Amino acid sequence: MPFELGLAVAWAKLGRRKHEWFVFEARRHRIKKSLSDIDGTDPHIHSGKPRGILLALTNARVRTRHRPTVKQLAAIYQDLKKAALKTKRDLQTSSLFEARPFAELVVAAGLIAKERIASLKER
Fold first, then answer.
1. CA distances for 114 relative to 15, 62, 76, 109, 118, angstroms
2. Which of 90, 91, 83, 87 is nearest to 112 (CA)?
3. SS3 call for 25
4. Per-position DSSP letters for 30-54, written without gaps between them
5. What is the mean predicted confidence (pLDDT) over 30-50?
6. In whole angstroms, what is the distance from residue 23 CA to residue 104 CA?
7. In whole angstroms, what is the distance from residue 39 CA to residue 4 CA?
8. Cys-Cys crosslink for 72: which of 5, 32, 68, 99, Cβ 3.0 to 4.6 Å?
9. CB of 110 closer than 8 Å to CB of 82
10. Is the pLDDT of residue 76 over 60?
11. Residue 45 burial (CB count, 10 A)
12. Residues 82-122: pLDDT tens digits?
């Protein structure tokens, strides 16, 4: 998604508020073929697997608060997969990328994260 990445980089450089951006890629060195002008940025390689993506996220989003482990994120992912199936069934839709199902998943993800990550319960 070179276009979307370009928007994120532009927003970070031109926006009034701080904006971080990260590059995630399934395979090493593949990004040089599609985005030759991104040299100097190290992509987070995830191998196209959920655990790899969760590990890459924990490395990209290093924080002082709300620092979930890969194990906690994996539990959230499993719970969210169940919620996604229920949402599809309840709303009788085949896609989670329509407005209503996506909004339902965003809410579910927040609730599940608060349940699984102790530091979020304080909020």
1. 30, 19, 10, 9, 7
2. 83
3. strand
4. THHHH-GGGTT---EE-TTSHHHHH
5. 68
6. 26
7. 17
8. 68
9. no
10. yes
11. 19
12. 999 999 999 999 999 999 999 999 999 999 999 988 777 76
Taking the whole predicted model, whether its pTM rises above 0.90 is answered as no
Residue 44's DSSP bridge partners are 24
pLDDT grade for 123, boundaries at 50, 70 and 90: low
Residues 96, 88: Cα–Cα separation, whole Å = 7
Residues in Cβ contact with 77 at an 8 Å cutoff, skipping those fewer than 6 apart:
50, 54
Residues 43 and 60: beta-carbon distance below 8 Å: no
State both tokens at 118.
Answer: 């102790």
Pinpoint the alpha helices (H) of 1-123: 2-14, 31-34, 50-60, 70-91, 99-116, 118-121
Phi, psi dihedral angles at 18 (to 5 degrees): -65, 135
